[in-house]
Amino acid sequence: MDAKLEKGLTIYFIRHGETYFNLHQRTQGWVDPFLTPKGIEDMRQVGKRLSRVRFDAAIVSDLKRTTRTAEILLGESIYPRWMVPIRELADFREISFGSFEGMTANETWEILRQYLGFPSVEAMLNETTEAERLSALKPADLHGEGEDYQDYLAHLHVGADKLLDELGDTDATLLFVGHSINIRHILQYLIPKEDHIPELYDMYSMKNGGIITINNQSGKFKIHQYMDKFYE
Predict the structure, then answer these.
(1) What is the pLDDT of residues 157-192, one digit of tens each?
(2) Cα 67 to Cα 194: distance, rounded to the nearest angstrom
(3) 3-class secondary structure for the chain?
(4) Which residue, 174, 147, 27, 162, is CA-closest to 93?
(5) What residues contact residue 61 under an 8 Å CB cut-off, 6+ apart?
(6) What distances in angstroms separate CA 178 from CA 29, 48, 141, one per listed residue?
(7) Which of 51, 148, 159, 186 is 20 to 30 A away from residue 59, measured at CA?
Protein backbone atom coordinates (compact mmCIF):
# COMPACT_ATOMS: atom_id res chain seq x y z
CA MET A 1 0.00 0.00 0.00
CA ASP A 2 1.94 3.00 -1.32
CA ALA A 3 -0.84 5.57 -1.79
CA LYS A 4 -0.46 9.05 -0.31
CA LEU A 5 -2.65 9.69 2.72
CA GLU A 6 -2.33 13.41 3.30
CA LYS A 7 -5.97 14.34 3.80
CA GLY A 8 -8.90 13.04 5.80
CA LEU A 9 -10.36 10.14 3.82
CA THR A 10 -13.10 8.44 5.86
CA ILE A 11 -14.59 5.03 5.10
CA TYR A 12 -17.76 3.54 6.57
CA PHE A 13 -17.61 -0.26 6.26
CA ILE A 14 -20.95 -2.05 6.57
CA ARG A 15 -21.61 -5.74 6.25
CA HIS A 16 -24.51 -6.54 3.91
CA GLY A 17 -27.96 -7.29 5.30
CA GLU A 18 -29.01 -10.74 6.44
CA THR A 19 -29.50 -13.21 3.58
CA TYR A 20 -31.41 -16.49 3.55
CA PHE A 21 -28.10 -18.36 3.84
CA ASN A 22 -27.17 -16.26 6.88
CA LEU A 23 -30.56 -17.05 8.38
CA HIS A 24 -30.13 -20.80 7.88
CA GLN A 25 -26.41 -20.79 8.78
CA ARG A 26 -25.20 -21.97 5.40
CA THR A 27 -21.78 -21.35 3.89
CA GLN A 28 -21.89 -18.34 1.60
CA GLY A 29 -19.20 -16.84 -0.58
CA TRP A 30 -19.78 -16.46 -4.32
CA VAL A 31 -23.34 -17.76 -4.09
CA ASP A 32 -25.63 -14.76 -3.78
CA PRO A 33 -28.92 -15.34 -1.91
CA PHE A 34 -31.54 -12.62 -1.52
CA LEU A 35 -31.79 -10.49 1.59
CA THR A 36 -34.45 -11.65 4.04
CA PRO A 37 -37.32 -9.31 5.01
CA LYS A 38 -35.51 -8.82 8.34
CA GLY A 39 -32.30 -8.04 6.47
CA ILE A 40 -34.08 -5.38 4.42
CA GLU A 41 -35.74 -3.78 7.44
CA ASP A 42 -32.53 -3.85 9.47
CA MET A 43 -30.73 -2.03 6.66
CA ARG A 44 -33.45 0.61 6.56
CA GLN A 45 -32.84 1.25 10.24
CA VAL A 46 -29.07 1.47 9.70
CA GLY A 47 -29.73 3.85 6.79
CA LYS A 48 -31.77 6.08 9.08
CA ARG A 49 -28.87 6.21 11.56
CA LEU A 50 -26.55 7.30 8.74
CA SER A 51 -29.05 9.50 6.92
CA ARG A 52 -27.17 12.74 7.58
CA VAL A 53 -23.75 11.41 6.54
CA ARG A 54 -22.79 12.97 3.22
CA PHE A 55 -21.25 10.09 1.25
CA ASP A 56 -19.28 10.91 -1.88
CA ALA A 57 -19.56 7.39 -3.31
CA ALA A 58 -20.61 3.87 -2.38
CA ILE A 59 -18.24 0.97 -3.05
CA VAL A 60 -19.64 -2.56 -3.20
CA SER A 61 -18.53 -5.99 -4.39
CA ASP A 62 -19.98 -7.45 -7.56
CA LEU A 63 -22.30 -9.67 -5.50
CA LYS A 64 -25.83 -8.33 -5.53
CA ARG A 65 -26.40 -8.62 -1.80
CA THR A 66 -23.98 -5.75 -1.31
CA THR A 67 -25.50 -3.59 -4.06
CA ARG A 68 -29.00 -4.17 -2.69
CA THR A 69 -27.82 -3.24 0.81
CA ALA A 70 -26.21 -0.02 -0.46
CA GLU A 71 -29.40 0.92 -2.30
CA ILE A 72 -31.47 0.46 0.87
CA LEU A 73 -29.00 2.42 3.01
CA LEU A 74 -28.80 5.32 0.57
CA GLY A 75 -32.57 5.30 0.18
CA GLU A 76 -32.80 6.66 3.72
CA SER A 77 -30.31 9.51 3.10
CA ILE A 78 -31.43 13.13 3.32
CA TYR A 79 -29.29 13.77 0.23
CA PRO A 80 -30.56 13.15 -3.33
CA ARG A 81 -29.87 9.62 -4.49
CA TRP A 82 -28.13 10.78 -7.69
CA MET A 83 -25.38 12.41 -5.60
CA VAL A 84 -23.95 9.05 -4.47
CA PRO A 85 -22.88 6.72 -7.29
CA ILE A 86 -22.65 3.00 -6.46
CA ARG A 87 -19.54 1.33 -7.88
CA GLU A 88 -19.34 -2.46 -8.14
CA LEU A 89 -15.76 -3.74 -7.93
CA ALA A 90 -15.07 -7.44 -8.52
CA ASP A 91 -11.82 -7.25 -6.53
CA PHE A 92 -13.94 -6.94 -3.37
CA ARG A 93 -15.92 -10.14 -3.91
CA GLU A 94 -16.06 -12.49 -0.92
CA ILE A 95 -13.89 -15.62 -0.94
CA SER A 96 -15.27 -18.58 -2.89
CA PHE A 97 -15.99 -21.63 -0.74
CA GLY A 98 -16.17 -23.85 -3.84
CA SER A 99 -18.20 -27.00 -3.28
CA PHE A 100 -18.75 -25.99 0.35
CA GLU A 101 -21.13 -23.26 -0.87
CA GLY A 102 -24.62 -23.92 0.46
CA MET A 103 -23.53 -26.50 3.04
CA THR A 104 -24.53 -25.91 6.63
CA ALA A 105 -21.79 -24.37 8.74
CA ASN A 106 -21.55 -27.60 10.74
CA GLU A 107 -20.99 -29.67 7.57
CA THR A 108 -18.25 -27.29 6.41
CA TRP A 109 -16.53 -27.30 9.81
CA GLU A 110 -16.63 -31.11 9.97
CA ILE A 111 -14.88 -31.51 6.60
CA LEU A 112 -12.22 -28.95 7.55
CA ARG A 113 -11.80 -30.67 10.93
CA GLN A 114 -11.09 -33.98 9.23
CA TYR A 115 -8.69 -32.42 6.75
CA LEU A 116 -6.76 -30.56 9.47
CA GLY A 117 -6.72 -33.61 11.75
CA PHE A 118 -8.41 -32.26 14.88
CA PRO A 119 -10.42 -34.48 17.26
CA SER A 120 -13.36 -32.06 17.34
CA VAL A 121 -14.65 -28.91 15.63
CA GLU A 122 -14.31 -27.09 18.94
CA ALA A 123 -10.62 -28.03 19.15
CA MET A 124 -10.06 -26.90 15.56
CA LEU A 125 -11.72 -23.52 16.16
CA ASN A 126 -9.77 -23.00 19.37
CA GLU A 127 -6.39 -24.05 18.02
CA THR A 128 -6.32 -22.57 14.51
CA THR A 129 -6.48 -19.05 13.15
CA GLU A 130 -9.04 -17.94 10.61
CA ALA A 131 -6.23 -17.63 8.07
CA GLU A 132 -5.22 -21.26 8.65
CA ARG A 133 -8.80 -22.44 8.16
CA LEU A 134 -9.27 -20.35 5.02
CA SER A 135 -5.97 -21.68 3.67
CA ALA A 136 -7.38 -25.20 4.02
CA LEU A 137 -10.47 -24.46 1.92
CA LYS A 138 -9.04 -25.31 -1.49
CA PRO A 139 -7.04 -28.44 -0.55
CA ALA A 140 -9.92 -29.76 1.57
CA ASP A 141 -12.45 -29.29 -1.24
CA LEU A 142 -12.92 -32.70 -2.88
CA HIS A 143 -13.80 -30.98 -6.17
CA GLY A 144 -10.90 -28.50 -5.97
CA GLU A 145 -13.25 -25.56 -6.43
CA GLY A 146 -12.44 -23.55 -3.31
CA GLU A 147 -10.55 -20.30 -3.80
CA ASP A 148 -6.88 -20.21 -2.89
CA TYR A 149 -6.48 -17.99 0.16
CA GLN A 150 -3.41 -16.15 -1.16
CA ASP A 151 -5.20 -15.46 -4.45
CA TYR A 152 -8.12 -14.08 -2.45
CA LEU A 153 -5.86 -11.75 -0.46
CA ALA A 154 -4.13 -10.63 -3.65
CA HIS A 155 -7.32 -9.39 -5.33
CA LEU A 156 -8.51 -7.69 -2.12
CA HIS A 157 -5.20 -5.83 -1.89
CA VAL A 158 -5.32 -4.88 -5.58
CA GLY A 159 -8.81 -3.43 -5.05
CA ALA A 160 -7.77 -1.53 -1.95
CA ASP A 161 -4.71 -0.10 -3.69
CA LYS A 162 -6.79 1.03 -6.68
CA LEU A 163 -9.24 2.76 -4.37
CA LEU A 164 -6.52 4.54 -2.43
CA ASP A 165 -4.65 5.56 -5.58
CA GLU A 166 -7.82 7.33 -6.66
CA LEU A 167 -9.16 8.68 -3.38
CA GLY A 168 -6.46 8.28 -0.73
CA ASP A 169 -5.34 11.89 -0.99
CA THR A 170 -8.84 13.38 -0.62
CA ASP A 171 -11.28 14.33 2.11
CA ALA A 172 -13.94 12.04 0.67
CA THR A 173 -16.37 10.04 2.78
CA LEU A 174 -17.03 6.57 1.35
CA LEU A 175 -19.68 3.97 2.05
CA PHE A 176 -18.21 0.48 1.62
CA VAL A 177 -20.69 -2.40 1.70
CA GLY A 178 -18.97 -5.75 1.83
CA HIS A 179 -18.78 -9.14 3.49
CA SER A 180 -17.62 -10.28 6.92
CA ILE A 181 -14.36 -11.89 5.81
CA ASN A 182 -13.43 -9.36 3.16
CA ILE A 183 -14.08 -6.29 5.32
CA ARG A 184 -11.94 -7.62 8.16
CA HIS A 185 -9.15 -8.61 5.78
CA ILE A 186 -9.20 -5.22 4.08
CA LEU A 187 -8.94 -3.61 7.50
CA GLN A 188 -6.00 -5.87 8.37
CA TYR A 189 -4.35 -4.52 5.21
CA LEU A 190 -5.18 -0.82 5.68
CA ILE A 191 -4.67 -0.44 9.43
CA PRO A 192 -1.05 -0.47 10.66
CA LYS A 193 -0.27 -3.73 12.46
CA GLU A 194 0.37 -2.00 15.79
CA ASP A 195 -3.18 -0.63 15.73
CA HIS A 196 -4.94 -3.91 15.01
CA ILE A 197 -7.67 -4.98 17.43
CA PRO A 198 -8.61 -8.63 18.18
CA GLU A 199 -11.96 -8.21 16.43
CA LEU A 200 -10.21 -8.02 13.06
CA TYR A 201 -9.37 -11.73 13.45
CA ASP A 202 -12.66 -12.84 15.00
CA MET A 203 -15.07 -14.36 12.47
CA TYR A 204 -18.01 -13.72 14.80
CA SER A 205 -17.23 -10.06 15.50
CA MET A 206 -19.15 -8.50 12.64
CA LYS A 207 -22.95 -8.82 12.48
CA ASN A 208 -25.05 -8.13 9.39
CA GLY A 209 -25.48 -4.37 9.14
CA GLY A 210 -22.61 -3.78 11.54
CA ILE A 211 -20.76 -0.49 11.12
CA ILE A 212 -17.01 0.08 11.19
CA THR A 213 -15.51 3.50 10.49
CA ILE A 214 -11.90 4.39 9.80
CA ASN A 215 -10.28 7.66 8.85
CA ASN A 216 -6.88 8.93 7.87
CA GLN A 217 -5.05 10.60 10.76
CA SER A 218 -1.58 11.97 10.10
CA GLY A 219 -0.90 9.67 7.18
CA LYS A 220 -2.34 6.40 8.47
CA PHE A 221 -5.77 4.89 8.97
CA LYS A 222 -7.16 4.58 12.48
CA ILE A 223 -10.29 2.77 13.63
CA HIS A 224 -12.91 5.15 15.00
CA GLN A 225 -15.79 2.69 15.47
CA TYR A 226 -16.05 -1.11 15.42
CA MET A 227 -19.63 -2.22 15.94
CA ASP A 228 -20.62 -0.70 19.27
CA LYS A 229 -17.07 0.18 20.38
CA PHE A 230 -15.61 3.62 19.80
CA TYR A 231 -11.91 4.53 19.76
CA GLU A 232 -10.08 7.84 20.00
Answers:
(1) 999 999 999 998 899 999 999 999 999 999 999 999
(2) 33
(3) CCCCCCCCCEEEEEECCCEHHHHCCECCCCCCCCECHHHHHHHHHHHHHCCCCCCCEEEECCCHHHHHHHHHHHHCCCCCHHHCCEEECHHHCCCCCHHHCCCEHHHHHHHHHHHHCCCCHHHHHHHCCHHHHHHCHHHHCCCCCCCCHHHHHHHHHHHHHHHHHHHCCCCCEEEEEECHHHHHHHHHHHCCHHHCCHHHHCCCCCCCCCEEEEEEECCEEEEEEECCEECC
(4) 147
(5) 88, 89, 90, 92, 93, 94, 177, 178, 179, 182
(6) 11, 19, 25
(7) 148
For residue 103, what are the contacts with CB-CB under 8 A and spacing of at least 6? 26, 27
What gap in Å lies between CA 181 and CA 107, rounded to an integer? 19
Beta bridge partners of 174: 11, 57
Q: Letter for the amino acid at 232?
A: E
Our measurement of the distance from residue 130's CA atom to the centroid of its chain's CA atoms, rounded to an integer in Å, reads: 14
Spatial neighbors of 125 by CB under 8 A, at least 6 apart, are: 109
**Which residues sit opposite 225 in a β-bridge?**
213, 230
pTM above 0.85, yes or no: yes
Distances (CA, A) of 159 to 58, 182, 217: 14, 11, 21
Radius of gyration of the chain (CA): 18
